[in-house]
Fold this sequence. Notes:
Elements: E1 2-8, E2 17-23, E3 27-33, H1 39-47, E4 54-58, E5 66-69, H2 79-84, H3 89-97, H4 113-126, E6 131-135, H5 143-155, E7 159-163, H6 167-173, E8 176-181, E9 184-189, H7 192-248, H8 250-263
Parallel strand pairs: 3-7, 3-8, 5-6, 6-7
Antiparallel strand pairs: 1-2, 1-4, 8-9
Amino acid sequence: AHLHSASFSYTTAVDVLHDVTLSLGPGWHGLVGENGSGKTTLLRLISGVIAPTSGRVFLDPADAVIGWCPQVVDSLDASVPRFADSWEASAASLRARLDLDRAELDRWPTLSPGERRRWQLAAALATRPDVLCVDEPTNHLDVEAYDLLVGELARFDGLGVIVSHERRLLDLLTTSTIRLDKGVVRLWGGCYSVAAQAWERAEAESAATVAELRRERDRAQQRLQARRRKLTETQRRDHSRRKRAGVSDPDARSIVVKNRQANA
């Protein structure tokens, strides 16, 4: 998946994402950032659910199969019954691994969010996607369902992008981390823990550089102020010296008297 100078806005006023350039290869990529930073919007751009306002988002190959698993699973998507009714050996094996029973679909409205999530992800995986985009996949899962789901995601060998606030999951699955911070999108190598150490170190070095520049600025200002004080003192002394010299000079006094008489 490739993004080239991609931007997106819901209104003409402000871009949610601006000028994002990113290239992603096979493996799981964690997508992290503060709430409201644009994580889900970026995930939807990569999955093709929405198109960029400007710039480009494209896949290689162009006909790559995309699996999209949004965070909210309310309605019964058509892909779920299709997967549930599939006689393919791979589908049957997947249903067995995730402990899914076709009869559960008859009571979809009463299924827990975690049960719906398992069906949603299984249906997406059954399409054998080249690209799989998943938003908060482990919300509302009990321990058993969590282990089953994580195990299945770990088997996926395509390009995966996962939004999650759960660091343990990101460390288990991901090999790189996409970070959204203050409107900037950057790809860091390593799982969340490794990537976080890298950007914290970079931020500390940047902060140290800024602090040193500020100290140098303060020192320069102090030197300038000292030169100004010295110059002011020198000018004051010169003025006083000239003033004293003018009063003590007889010729100067006579000139002053003559000027006064002439003006009288």
